[in-house]
Amino acid sequence: MFLASWAMHLYGSWQNHNVEQLAKHLPKESVTDYLGQAEFWFETFQNWQSEFLSVASIVFLTIYLRQKGSPESKPVDAPDMETGK
């Protein structure tokens, strides 16, 4: 899944880069040339940084909100009337 999403990002970013190149009257670049550019890697690391941050937030909140005795936690089978929330 990681490799497929990375390859799709590479393809789409490369296509967009070539459209921008044509708008500036510059020649198109090959995928291998674009793969070596800092622009692509900057986009890639920004994308994965946000993904890891969101997954880490979900994991942390899941653990915190289900801790025994926390105000946000209640027994699974308890009705809302008994918990006051």
Helix content: 55-70%
Percentage beta strand: under 5%
Mean pLDDT: 85
Indicate the structural class: mainly alpha
Our Rg estimate from Cα atoms comes to 23 Å
Characterize the biggest β-sheet: none
Order of helices and strands: HHHH
How would the blueprint of this fold be written?
Layout: H1 2-23, H2 31-35, H3 38-65, H4 80-83
Written overview of the protein:
This protein has 85 residues and is an all-alpha fold. The mean pLDDT is 85. 69% of the residues lie in helices and 0% in strands. The longest helix is centred in the middle third of the chain and has 28 residues. The radius of gyration is 23 Å and the shape is rod-shaped.
